[in-house]
Design goal:
Number of strands: 30
Largest sheet: 9 strands, mixed
Radius of gyration: 30 Å
Number of helices: 10
Shape: elongated
Strand content: 25-35%
Length: about 575
Amino acid sequence: MSEFELPIQQTEILLEDVFGDLPPEGHSKRMRAFQRDGRIRVLCISDTGTRGLGGPIRADVVPKPGERSDFADFVRNFGRSTSKGLQGGTFGLGKGVLYSASEVGVCLIYSQTRVGDSVEARLIGVSGGDEDYSDPTGKRFTGRNWWGVFADDGVIDPMTGASARLLAQNVGMPVPDPSDTGTTIMIISPKPYLETEGVVEQNQNVGPDARVHALREAAIKWAWPHALDLGSGPSINFAFSHEGAPLAPIEPLTDSSVKHFAFAYRDLIRDGITSRPLSSTLTQIQAIRSERPSKHLGLLAVRHALDRGHVPPEFANTVALMRGPRMIVKYDTITTAPAEGTFHAVFLADEGVDHEFAESEPVAHDDWVPVSKQRGSRNLVRICLDRIRSYFRELTRGKGQADGTDGSRGLTRVSSNLGTLIGSFKGQGLGGGSDQRSLQGEQRDVVRPSRRAQGRIVGKPQLLLHQNEPHVAFTFRVIGGRLGEVLRLVAQARVVLDGSLTESDKDPLAGTTPKLAYWLSDNDPTERASATVVTPSDLQFTAVFSLPRECAVSVELALEEMD
């Protein structure tokens, strides 16, 4: 997707050759008034590698068996059949946003689609924003206008073939390679808008590139599953630019708003659907089923994240609901949050019930609304949503919830003593004299203490569940250090005894010591057995330890220089 001003020559071709004739009434009549210094602004949305807009070019032509009617549905047909109820996935009101985004209600549509054994180019202009009107002879017009070529019966059809492709290129439209299929929609003179609290409002301007940034954020929020590389590349390669300058690519596994959902979805696809052993201990996968009738409804993947203020509130403790198209339908709020951190979950409806969930979606495809069923039948959508809520209620009643029960009194003790249970940090220096000289003669892979960098604890320790057992997490930041210095973080947790002393025995007979479960870092939330940092660094690192029952713990951090 790109927004830019057409050069003067391309503007002249667009306004004189393509839209040379304008209707006597309506918004599109004012098209030329939106030129600025002989140039007009456009917004282009394009895709490649898709089917393109195929099928008959007329709405009154019945498609052949197995043929789709994408062109007629998108270009010719407006509105929506009321007989479809809440069913989603049809062209109708959704495409109206393209025309309403234009000051003149006009889009130029170019598509390459397969017709028989060859690829056919199709180009047509469409006005979807004009009111109906009558000409001086008393003939009534609907307000919908098309720009193309006159057919023998007087109907406007799209320009096709090499001439359509050449004209599209001459007006600045991105077009696929001649053998590829895809579609480009050019919105003529897009409206300025105001973005307030994430809501786009028309007719106010907040900056020339704000629209492209807003659309990029929308793609991240609702379409991140398609930008995720699960081994064979993303299903959609998103690209955004403004006046030729590209915006940062979409990377779901590192974006702070959706990365926890992306990791949960990755584990669900890799392990849940394929029934392989779970590769991530941070994700729990739960099958959601109905009992009467006995039916598999889908899979729920839950990731318990340590919330250090990096997760936007609207994404914390929510379930991303999706079905076959793998677009997020809704972020449903989890009413029972964990004792520490945040939940981030993904639910993917099973293919066998996809139709049931599609029928529950309203026109905007932004919710699952359990519709009324015949007497005696069960509503699978309602059952599914109830099962998901029930699962989180049970999850927060488990061992990770500090509620004063026998299984959580140790967690309660840690929570009430967080201010006093943090131990000292050991960041020893290289030392002087003979110690330093003796190290110089050893092998280069030797580990020796760092002299300058220091470890600092960040925030309070946090409680969480790991493999359904209570754990405690300590977060650190490394301050200072020589440029390019590589350090290993070594954290050790000990049990806190009465009087704030710590257990010195590494394996006491009377109890269990805290064990390091894994490390996390800001730039990679995948659990790891060790952590290293290249200084200087602003990254935060989190060490997660098992939490012995009825115990409180402290932590020490050492920094070791690596050659």
